[in-house]
Amino acid sequence: MNIIPKSPTASWFEMENKISSKFDSFISLSLGDTILDFSKNIKKTIFQQENKFNYRYSAISGSDSLKQAISKYNRHYAGGNYLKNEIIVTNGGKQGIFNVLLTLINPGDEVLLPRPYWDTYLEIINFLNGKAILIKTDGNYNMDIDDLSKKITSKAKLIIINSPNNPSGAIIRRSSLKKIADLAIENNIHILSDEVYNAFLYNDEKYVSISSLSQEAKERTIVVNSFSKSLSIPGLRVGYCASSKEMISKLENIQSHSTGNVSNVSQHIALGLLEHFEKITKDTLKTFNKRIDYSFKRLKEMQNTEMVTKPAGAIYLFPKIMNGGEDAYYLCKKLLETRGVSFMPGKYFGLKDHLRITVSHEIPVLDKALTIFEEFLEENEKRHYTT
Ligand SMILES: Cc1ncc(COP(=O)(O)O)c(C=O)c1O
Q1: DSSP characters for 86-141?
Q2: Ligand 1 centroid to residue 186 C-alpha, Å
Q3: Ligand 1 centre and the CA of 378: distance in Å?
Q4: Residue closest by Cα to atom 14 of ligand 1
C-alpha cells in the first residue's frame, strides 16, 4: 500500500500551535488563510433560512443552482462558458486536485510541475507512483518554456499550472499560456490549471485562464478553483472543477465512491455568498493589496532578504534569505521557537533558501512580525541555522 505523508504545511501549523502557548503574543503568518469576514451580515441572513437546508443525500456533482452560480463566477474571473454538466462541486480545491490526478495518472506517468510549487501536488503525484518533472522558473518565477518543451517525453500526461502562484504570487502571462497550450495540444497532454487565487490580482491586472485561449485549450484543461480564499470560507470546504463533460463525469465517478456530495449546508452558504461575490472579493482584494504593498516595502528594505519581485497576485510574499544559502527551515524554526513568529519554510515549495509569509493580519501586526524578523536576522547574521 502506498503511504502519503501528512501535508508538511499542516504539520508545521500543528507544531506551531503547540509552541504558541509559550508566548504572550504569538504571530502566525504561516497558513494560507485569509482570516477575513466581510460577509458576516450575509451569513446571518443565510442562517435565518435554516428551513431551506437539505439534510438528505444530494447530487454528487453539486446542486444545479450552485453550479449555475459557479459558471457565472468562473466567467467573471476566467472567461469561458461552462455548462452545468461541465462543472463539479468539490470539497475545496484539494479534493478537485486529488481527483484530477487520480483520474489521469498511472504509475510511471510524468507530470510537469514548475518550481516553486504547492506541496500537495508533489505528494499526490508520488502517492500515485507518477513522476514529477520539475520545470525551471526564472528569477521572477516565470516558467521557463524552453525547459518545459525540452522535458516533455512520451510519458508526459499532465502539466500543472498555478497562476497566481502559491507561494511566489507570480502570474503566467497570456503569451506564455499560449505557448504552454500549444505544447499541450501538440503532445496530447492535459493541463490542470489551479486558479484558486485568481480573484487576488494586484495592479489592475486582468486574469487570463489558459482555458479561455481556444476551444482546443479548453477541452484539455481542468480548471480547479475554490472559495476558501476568495470568499474566506476555507472551513466550509467548497471548491469546483470545470472541464469537458467527459472529464467531469470521470471526476464524479470517483467522488461518488469517496465523499459523495459536498455538505449541503456548505453548498447553501456558498450559493448565498456567491450572490455578492463581486463586493466580497473587491473588499478582500483592497485589504490584501495594502498588506502586500506594505510588507513588500519592508522586506525590500531589509539587509538579509532578497525580495526579487513584487507578487502580482495571491496572498503571500516569498523572500529569499541571504545567509550563504543555508536552509531557511532552520531559520524559520528558530524564529518560531525563540521569537514567537511563524513563517512557512520554503523547502515545502521546492526552494529551501526561501520562506513564505502570508499577509493574513492587519498592518500593525505585520509591522510587529516584520520588525521582530528584521532584528532576528541582524542578530543572527552569518550564523548557520543547521543545528
Ligand atoms: C495553490 C492552491 N491550490 C489549492 C488549494 C486548496 O484549497 P482548499 O483549501 O480549497 O482545499 C490551496 C490552499 O492553500 C492552494 O494554495
Answers
A1: GEEEESHHHHHHHHHHHHHPPTT-EEEEESS--HHHHHHHHHTT-EEEEE-B-TT-
A2: 29
A3: 34
A4: 32
Distance CA 242, CA 240 (A): 7
Residues 111 and 207 in one domain: yes
Answer yes or no: is 46 within a domain. no
Same domain, 357 and 295: yes
CATH number, domain at 99?
A: 3.40.640.10
Assess if residue 47 is contained within a domain. Answer: no
Determine the distance separating the centroid of ligand 1 and the alpha carbon of 94, expressed in angstroms. 6
Task: Count up the domains in the chain and report the number.
Answer: 2
Whose alpha carbon is nearest atom 6 of ligand 1? 93
Check whether the bond before 5 is cis (ω within 30° of 0).
Answer: no
Check whether residue 221 and residue 77 sit in a common domain.
Answer: yes
Cβ atoms 327, 352 nearer than 8 A: yes
Domain shared by 87 and 137, yes or no: yes
Is 103 found in the same domain as 132?
yes
Last residue of one domain, picked from the residues 231, 246, 276? 276
Cell 506541496 belongs to 119
Q: Tell me the pLDDT tens digit for each residue of 36-66.
A: 988 888 988 888 888 888 999 999 999 999 9
Flag whether 209 is in a domain.
yes
Q: Identify the helix (H) or strand (E) that includes residue 345.
A: strand 344-345
CA-nearest residue for atom 4, ligand 1, is: 93
213-250 pLDDT, tens per residue? Answer: 999 999 999 999 999 999 999 999 999 999 999 999 99
Q: Output the DSSP codes for 217-272.
A: HHHHEEEEEEHHHHSS-GGG--EEEE--HHHHHHHHHHHHHTT-S--HHHHHHHHH
DSSP 3-state of 342: strand
End-to-end CA distance of the chain: 35
Residue written as cell 463581486? 278
Strands of 37-84 (E only): list them.
none
Domain residues for the domain of 17 are 8-38+279-376
